[in-house]
Every structure is written in structure tokens, then in C-alpha cells.
Amino acid sequence: MNLTDVQRAEIAALRDTTAPTRRASVPALEEMLYQALPVLDHGFVRVIDYMGDDAAIVQAARVSYGRGTRRVSEDAGLIRYLMRHRHSTPFEMCEIKYHVKLPIFVARQWIRHRTANVNEYSARYSILDREFYIPAPEHLAAQSDSNRQGRGAVLEGQEASDVLDLLRADATRTYDNYAAMLNEDADGQPRDPARQGLARELARMNLTLNTYTQWYWKTDLHNLLGFLSLRADAHAQYEIRAYADVMLETAKAWVPATHAAFMDYRMGAITLSAGMLAVVRRMLAGEAVEQPGSFLSRREWTEMMHALAAPRPDP
Amino acid sequence: MNLTDVQRAEIAALRDTTAPTRRASVPALEEMLYQALPVLDHGFVRVIDYMGDDAAIVQAARVSYGRGTRRVSEDAGLIRYLMRHRHSTPFEMCEIKYHVKLPIFVARQWIRHRTANVNEYSARYSILDREFYIPAPEHLAAQSDSNRQGRGAVLEGQEASDVLDLLRADATRTYDNYAAMLNEDADGQPRDPARQGLARELARMNLTLNTYTQWYWKTDLHNLLGFLSLRADAHAQYEIRAYADVMLETAKAWVPATHAAFMDYRMGAITLSAGMLAVVRRMLAGEAVEQPGSFLSRREWTEMMHALAAPRPDP
Amino acid sequence: MNLTDVQRAEIAALRDTTAPTRRASVPALEEMLYQALPVLDHGFVRVIDYMGDDAAIVQAARVSYGRGTRRVSEDAGLIRYLMRHRHSTPFEMCEIKYHVKLPIFVARQWIRHRTANVNEYSARYSILDREFYIPAPEHLAAQSDSNRQGRGAVLEGQEASDVLDLLRADATRTYDNYAAMLNEDADGQPRDPARQGLARELARMNLTLNTYTQWYWKTDLHNLLGFLSLRADAHAQYEIRAYADVMLETAKAWVPATHAAFMDYRMGAITLSAGMLAVVRRMLAGEAVEQPGSFLSRREWTEMMHALAAPRPDP
Amino acid sequence: MNLTDVQRAEIAALRDTTAPTRRASVPALEEMLYQALPVLDHGFVRVIDYMGDDAAIVQAARVSYGRGTRRVSEDAGLIRYLMRHRHSTPFEMCEIKYHVKLPIFVARQWIRHRTANVNEYSARYSILDREFYIPAPEHLAAQSDSNRQGRGAVLEGQEASDVLDLLRADATRTYDNYAAMLNEDADGQPRDPARQGLARELARMNLTLNTYTQWYWKTDLHNLLGFLSLRADAHAQYEIRAYADVMLETAKAWVPATHAAFMDYRMGAITLSAGMLAVVRRMLAGEAVEQPGSFLSRREWTEMMHALAAPRPDP
After folding, report:
1. CB-CB contact of D63 with C120 (8 Å)
2. A85 at interface of B, judged by CB pairs closer than 8 A
């Protein structure tokens, strides 16, 4: 992650300015505010603003005139209850806004979460930076044999170095040609006065999908948790999970009671279908159930046995 | 509007507590925070929290690292530009949360605006207060002759007093019977030990639609302005317009540049259809156009002439 | 449910008219189309239109040029996979539109599901029918002792008949006064020429919450299932569950493979939190776990034991 | 646009199959159904399914039991009224589903319209076709001098041919390297048995933004019109406008009365701000207003004079 001196100064200026507020405030999140938390090779997540805290969830659930809170333990208990019974509206009463720098192919996965507000840096209007994502060697994985949308072993030796060379060379060349077609120097003057320069909205089509873009992204806590439950999950593509993991840390600083309930009831939880539940009941009654007599498909059986056997994160 | 002493104390406690924040803050809105701004006979609007300010709109539109603002005049110009060209996403970067007390029939109009977060006081879970809306005499209007969903002249004399008597008597009686069916006293004990008491989720069906309910309602600035453009409009029912007018004042305190642009480009603006525009062009060229030769229906002609003739609110 | 002769004739006319279409069609749902399926004492659900079928889900998941389907068993397997792994977007590719007649207090619960399109009969513009919901004796329940938003035993004897009398009398009186304040006869002429008549938008506030309203309600299959998973659930209030149960039948006729997967993976499923899962693992390993050593609260323990013990609907 | 023989056969099979339906049907749109309407060099728009017609809008607006329609002229008049007064909910009662093949940079603009359902072809799971968008010479425009997000004159001569060569060469090379890194032949077997092949979810990052993707996209008529009003507009980038223009034709076949009202009240309409309206009133009163005395900025003055002077599309 390379910030320019101007950008660092802008961030420092924001962090140096405080004002008194009557609003709910969270010191642990204030501490993180505006800082660029690094992700991947050139990306970051910055918390720009937030509304509400754990107590605001309680306040809204009770539609109260005041803070709505009683003892901290009672509040945490109510939050656990709301999470367990999927009462989503109180969690919508908190809101967070991020500034994110991310590769375009990650942005395309991310934007599928529609209940959010987005302002993306416009490559129709402006010129993108010369930055692209190149995986670290340990993330350069082969196609999975068993899962059509998954990764297998890490590539090694000549194949790995060939892939990295190709990714670097192609991204560099297409960016350089993008810049050449634009025909603008740093001051917006023509590099070559004999050429007009291709329109920005057209030239951008020459960039590869690992080029970095950036956006402001704002959502409520309920939808943030929905995003994290899918994207901080082991089945998510590593590159978006790297962002989700950092955002999960910001959620922990922001709303610790909600974060704890979320880890217990969502991230660490499993869902048993009616058919799986019937099997578990038979097992608990002492029966030795096998897949053929379980009424479950082989795939569902495997998924269930994996869930029941594997150690999961502690609550 | 009658707040209990406990409620007043809770509000005062919130207002007395401040904390330093690095977030964008708006002193004029901080001044209003948590206060119950009266609406109708027993209703109110309270600003509970907010995120962002005019500069946050500019910051998001520019996807900037810092505050994003330049001179105040440039910011206001950009906000006017965004409003004029219906760039909605930067305005979504600000968020506001209200606590509102309102009659149920108003809540039913309001909830049609779906892009918002809502926590309503649950009459399944709790007992509603004994408060209902009775129109002030100057708002007790007859059915309009010309507009099937509008109001005509104010009722007067015997008819007016009969209507007010009926509204009061019916609301009072149905509430008293609601309480009787519940069979609970203020401490949650049975009034009449011989009766079980009807379930709250059933008893509430006996209440009239002018009974007050309350909710937390949170939305982004873009959707707030969409709500206000419909509900602070002269065609809106007076009872919801009374809320919209108060909320428009909170928006003015919160985001003054956006409010000014909104008054100019939305509240005070008119839309000319292609057909109307053709007529205006002919008029500007000096032609004396009449409805029969205008290609407009009589209704559209009347609406256009009204819009072109009537004084509108200043920008 | 009382339809007028005119309404019956309109429905019959719609049912008698067919046209050839190239679109996906579902004979079992065509059979139900437009019919008023009765709910509660005066309500109904009518399927007005639909888009797509089970195969359309497969077609969208595969982004295919043709029907996208292979063998029926493969399609059902893919649908089960999509449901199990919460892939929601393919289910959004089917859409259904209902005409529903329902008490206002049910409409107020229902409208909390925001991802839907709604056109409600306007009591600002028109006059509501003289119909209100009165619970059947077996649904006239006392407040639950254990659950603040639940029902207990059925009311009996004098208390039951008193409640029914009160509900009927109050609904009748408030409706009659509504009609009197409107001062309109069936032809829209003044009943009493000496009175102006109160505006409809005001008079409606005198109606009780069990008055019937009606709306067109349209949503996609994913959101329909979300609605049904909450409202066809045993914890939902009986009056809205009665609607959900009928709609669940329409879903079964429309998309049988999706319905079967939904019953297995959502309606009949349970979620085990990380903490509950740890307990189940210990139990499966043969340990006799008790609540005090389970790290679960008493409430969570009870909920888990109930889920593991109780018979659930078959898949 | 190159469809394979298999794809053509699948489309033909869909078009050859009809079934009787009681639903609202539109012969003119049935005629278009499933056909690939070409857009740009390799893209297309296919209408896959639809729900409702002009009469369904009327039916929902009236919450009727039957078809809801009266005379065709009355229906058209109601639709014009609803459009003029921005009553959006009746238009939400119609739904349409498209299959679209489009360059990724166009998909990224399009997806900003969030109120729609989308299933995109997954390059995590599958391998993209070797197709990329190369602008026709007449669309190869220079950057605009006056508008930072617009196009100027068409490029000519050497600069034009250089740009086309670069675009073609870079897209070809990056695609070939994508295929090489994947190391799969047409049957999914390794090209080079000595290599593992890079995971699909990683290899795709090497593709340029003019690579074609495809998706199923479904939305309601209200949101379709919102999309078209922005994307069929002269200020939209040509490449997305090409799609919007074709979709506008499908809307005309589907809901002709709504289309006509839309062209009059939205596409051909202008909005006058409060300040502009004040100027027009002075002009209509015979005053010769100039910009300096207009209270409008130079930019707003220019925009207004342009709108009042320029010929607009006929209603």
C-alpha cells in the first residue's frame, strides 16, 4: 500500500481534528478512524464514519426515549436474543462507511451485495493509478480438482514463476498502452501534440481486471454482517476474504457485543436440514447411522459429518 | 405532546453527555439532537443520530482521502451540480435517524417509502398509550369536489362539532375496551382476577387508526429528500406534511447547501413534458397558443398554465 | 369471504380467457389463477400472475441460452444445492403477484417485508367496505404467561363472549360513524344535503385496525420464501400465518422442487450456534452433558433441547 | 454476434414451444421472445420472460378483481396521469427478464442500478469466451475538451488505426495468456500435463475490461424506465446507450401506452428549477432577460437556453 505524501497529510489532518458530539461514540473505533488498514499488495480499508453502537441496537429494539440500555450484561443478552432469532431491524440502526482500494475483479464480486451505498472512482472522468494486484506466491493456487469454484495446491517452481511473469507483464503493458492512448501527461497536457488522445471512457477498456479501483461503500450493520458471513467464510475467494477479515476486526472494535453474538450464531454456527436433524436425533438416541440408511445424499452426508466433526472457532 | 418526567429526564441525560469525535459534526444539528419537536396534537420528531454533512457528499463524490472540500462556494456549486443532474449516490453517503410519534394512519402512508430502516413500537409485545389524534378545527376539512383524494372547505358549525365529538368518543371508547379486554393494571397485574385477559396481539385490533404509535426511522439523505419531495408537497395529506415540514427544518440545519439546492431543483421546480415544452417554445417565440391548438389535454393545459403562472417558493 | 356478483363475473371472465405463450408455464398454478382462496372470515389470497418455474431457476443459475434443464432429477439436485448453500440470486428470477384481502393490523405486519411491490386500495381516494375481522372462538386466546408476544389458552365462557361482543360492537359503531361523517350514499350523493361530509382521508382514521383492506403484492421467489419462513412459522401471529399457509400451497403448485427443498432446508431446519454445536459434539461422543457444564444459558439450553427432541415436519 | 449452432437450436426450440396461459399476454413481445437482438460487435439482448402489460398497471392502480381496464383511451389516460404525477408503484407491477451479453466495462456501469435481480456467468466457475469489444471506427472518439466525462471528435488516420491495433493486440494477448495459465483444453484436460493450471478465479484477473460477459437481468417496469431514462439519454456512454436503445424498443412492443407516456414525460421532458422558472415567467411576460440579470449561473443559463431552444423528440 503506497500512499502519497499528500494523502498521508490529508489523513493526518482528519485524525487531528476532533469536535464534541452528543451522538453515540465508540473510542475503540475512533482510534481506527481514517487510517488505511492494508489489504493485499496495494489495497486498503479505511473506516470513514459510523453511526451507533451496541447500545443503539438496544435503544431501537426498545424504541426508547433515552439510551435504552440497562446493565451491560442485559444488553448483551438482548443482542444475543435478537441475533439468535434473526431480528434484523435493530441491527439496521447502525451504519458504517468505508473507503476501500481493491482490484476490479474483487469489486465485481463485492458489488453483488446490493443493499449498500457506493461511490466508485470514475475512470470515465479520471485516470486510474498504475497499480495492479499480483498474488503473493503462497496464494498462487491451482484449480481445485474437487470444487469447480475453488483452489487446489499452491503452484510451484517454473509454473509459478511463469504465471507471475505473465500477470506482471500483461498488466504493465496494457496500462502503458492505456496511458499512451490517453496521450495525457501529469499536467493534463498532450504527450504527443499530434494526437488527440482517446476518450477516457474508452481507453479504460484496455485495463486488466487486477487493476486497482477505489470506492466509498456504506451499509448498515445487518447488511455488513450478511456480507461478512459470506465473504469472511472459508468458501469465499481469498482475495475478497482478505478484505472481509479486516472489516470483521473493525466490527469487533465498533460493536463488541454484536460481534461476539455474530461469531457464535452465524460464523461458527451450522444449519441442519430436516433430514440431517432426523439423523442427529437417531445418533443421539444411540443408533449407529450410516449414509445408506440416512435418507441423505452422499454429498449432504459428507457435509454434515464434516460439520459435526471439525473443530469450529470458539464462541 | 406530553412527555412523562422519566422521558424528559432521559432526553436531558442524553443531551448532557458529550464525547470528542473525529467524525464530521454539525453544531446546528447537535443543538437539536434528541429534542422532541412537536407535530400535531401529541406527535413529535426527534433527531437521534446522523452521519455526514455537506462536505461528506463532496468527499464521496470525489472519492477523496481527506475532507474532499475546497472552498465553501465550490462545494456548494458541486452540490448544486449533483442535484441538478440527479446524481443520487453522493447524497446516499449521509444518514439520519429519527424517533417519531405519529398516528397509525400516517404511519401507513409513511411506510410506503421502503428504502429506510424501521423499528416500530410493538403492540404485540407492549401496550399502546392512550393517545389519539383529533384534528384542530382549522384542519377539519370536507371532501374536495374536484379532487377525489383531496380536501375542500373547512367544516363549520354543527357538522364540525359533531365530527369532533364522534372522533373523540369512538377513540376513547375503543381504547377503554382495549384496556378492558387486556385486563392488566399499570403493574401488569390482572384488573379482574376472574378473567385471563385477551392476548395483546389480538386486543390491539380494537384500536382506531388515529391512535398514536412510534418508531425509529433511519434513512439516507437521498431517500430523505425523496420522502420530503412527496410529503412536504402541497398535494400531500396535511397530517403527514406536518411531519415532513419539521423534518425539512432538520435537513436545513444538517446540510444547508444540500437543502438550498433541493429547494431550488426539486421543491420549487416544475417538469415540462415534451408536449408542454413545445407549447412554451411557441409562446416564447411570440405565438398566442390556446389549449385547442396545443396538442395538450385540457387537464395538462390547466396544470401547465397553473405552474407557469403561480408564484413558487423562492430558491 | 363475500364476493359480489360483479366480482365473481370478473374473475370468471379472466379464467375463461387463454392465450398461447412461449413463456415458461405451470399448469398446476394456472389452475389456481385468479381464484379467491379464502383466509380468515372475510379475507382471501388470489394469484394474479407469475413469472418462471423451477426450470427458470436452473436456467438462470446456468445463464443458459435454452431451457437450461437436464434431467428432472438433476434439476432438483441443483435446486437443493442452491438452497443448501444459500445462493439466493437464482430464486430471484421467479416472480409472483397476489391480490390479498386482509385486516389492517395484519397488513401492518406484512408491510415490514420491504422487498416487494405494493398497491394498496386507497382509503384517501375510495370508501372501504364494511368488513372487519372477528376471531373464530378457537382463536380467541389469552395473553401468554411465558412469552410477552405470544398467546396462551383459549378464552372461554363469559369472558370470550364479552370480548366478541365488544369487538363486534366497536367495529360496527366506528364504521357506521365513518359512513355518517362521509355523508355519501351508494351513488356518491350526500345522505344529508345540509352537511358537506368529512374528507375521506380524515374519516378513515375512525376505523378500527380489524377493518379489511386489500392490495396487490408482488415479490420474487427468494423474498417470498423469506416471508414464508418467518410468517408460516409457529412463532408468527396466527392471523398472518393463515395467509402464509395458503401462499405456501401456491408455492408448492408453482415450483414443487423449490418448495420441497425449502421445507427441508428452511422450514424444517434448525441452526446450531457454535456453543450448541460444541455440546452436540460432546453428546455424540457419548458424554452426558448437563446445562451447568454446557456453557449455554438456560434459555439457549432449553431451546436446543426442544429442537433436538421435538418431532419436526418431514422433509 | 456469433451464436453457436447449439445455441441457435436451443433458442429455436424455446420459440417453437407454446402453451396456453390465463396470464396477461402481449403478442408483439411474444414475437421477440428469446431472440438475440444484436448490440455492439458481439453483444446481444434477449427477452427471456415478462409479467403483465399496460392493462396490468391499470388493474393494480385500481386494485381490481378483474382486468381493471375500461376503454383503451381511458387506460392510456390513466397511465399518462400516473406517469405525470410520478406514481411509481403501479409500474412496479410489471416485470421483465433479459439475457444480455455485454463487455465487462459496460456491466460495471449497469450494475450500479441496484434494484434488479442478476445472475452473471461466473468466471470463478467457468471459462469465458474469447470475445472482446473493439469499437467501430465511427465510435472511436477523442476525449471531450469541454466535458471531463464525455467524448469529442472521432479519431482519424494513424491515431485511429494505432488505437484499434493496440486494443486488439492487448485483448488477444491477455486472453491467450489467460488460456495458457488455465492450461485446459476444450475437453477440460490439461494442455500441458506437466502443469497444474492456475485456478479460474485467479486467471480471470488477466482479462481486459472489454472482454464480454453475460447475465440474466430482471427488473420491474418502473426501475427499467429509470434505467432507460439515464442510459438511453444523450449523456450516457455510447456503449451502454446501445443496449438501452434496444431495450427501449422491447418496452415499446411490451407496454405501448406506457412507452408513449414515458417518451413524453421523461425522455422528452425538461425540469426547470425554481430559478429557471422565474426567468421563463419573465420571458413569457415579454421581458428580455439576459444571463447577468437572471440570478442563474452561466452554466445553468446555458443549459436552460439549450433546453428551450433545441428541438426535442416528439411525444
Report:
1. yes
2. no
| Enclosing domain of residue B74 | 1-133+210-269
Shared domain check, A117 and A85: yes
Q: Which of residues 214-243 of B touch D (CB under 8 A)?
A: 230
Q: Which residues of A touch D170 (CB under 8 A)?
A: 170, 173-174, 177, 206
Q: Are residues B282 and B258 in the same domain?
A: no
Hey, how many other C-beta atoms are within 10 angstroms of the C-beta on B179?
Answer: 17
Considering the domain boundaries, does residue D249 fall inside one? yes
pLDDT, tens only, C178-230: 999 999 988 888 999 999 999 999 999 999 999 999 999 999 999 999 999 99
**Residue A246 resides in a domain:** yes
List the pLDDT tens digit at each of the 315 positions of chain A: 789 999 999 999 999 999 999 999 999 999 999 999 999 999 999 999 999 999 999 999 999 888 877 777 788 999 999 999 999 999 999 999 999 999 999 999 999 999 999 999 999 989 999 999 999 999 999 998 887 778 999 999 999 999 999 999 999 999 999 999 999 988 888 999 999 999 999 999 999 999 999 999 999 999 999 999 999 999 999 999 999 999 999 999 999 999 999 999 999 999 999 999 999 999 999 999 999 999 999 999 999 999 898 664 544
Residues of chain B in contact with residue D275, where contact means CB-CB under 8 angstroms, are: 264, 315
CB contact under 8 A, A196 and D125: no
C92 and C1 co-located in one domain: yes
Closest CB from A143, A150, A197 relative to D143: A197
Q: What is the DSSP string of D192-246?
A: STT---B-HHHHGGGSBTTBEEEEEEEEEHHHHHHHHHHHSSTTS-HHHHHHHHH
Which residue carries 366480482 as its cell? C7
Q: Are residues C8 and C144 in the same domain?
A: no
Cβ–Cβ contact B120 with A under 8 A: yes
The answer to whether A34 faces chain B, any CB pair under 8 Å, is: yes
Report CB contact under 8 Å: A21, B19: yes
Separation of alpha carbons A57 and A69, rounded Å: 9
Of C263, C269, C299, the CB nearest to A272: C269
Determine what percent of chain D is predicted with pLDDT higher than 70.
Answer: 97
Instruction: Mark yes or no for CB contact C197/B142 under 8 Å.
Output: yes
Q: Based on the structure, what is the number of domains in chain B?
A: 3
User: A279-290: per-residue pLDDT in tens?
Assistant: 999 999 999 999
Q: What is the reported pLDDT for B187? A: 82
CA distances from C111 to A116, B74, B201, B225, C217 (A): 21, 42, 17, 22, 10
Give CA–CA dist C47/C28, Å, rounded. Answer: 12
Task: Report the complex ipTM.
Answer: 0.94
Check if B8 is active-site: no
- In this structure, the answer to whether residues C32 and C103 fall within a common structural domain is yes
- The CATH number of the domain holding residue D10 is 3.30.1360.170
Q: Are residues B84 and B176 in the same domain?
A: no
Claim to verify: residue B75 and residue B216 sit in the same structural domain:
yes
In chain D, which residue's Cα lies nearest the Cα of A158? D195
Shared domain for D261 and D303, answered yes or no, is no
Contact C101, C214 (CB under 8 A): yes
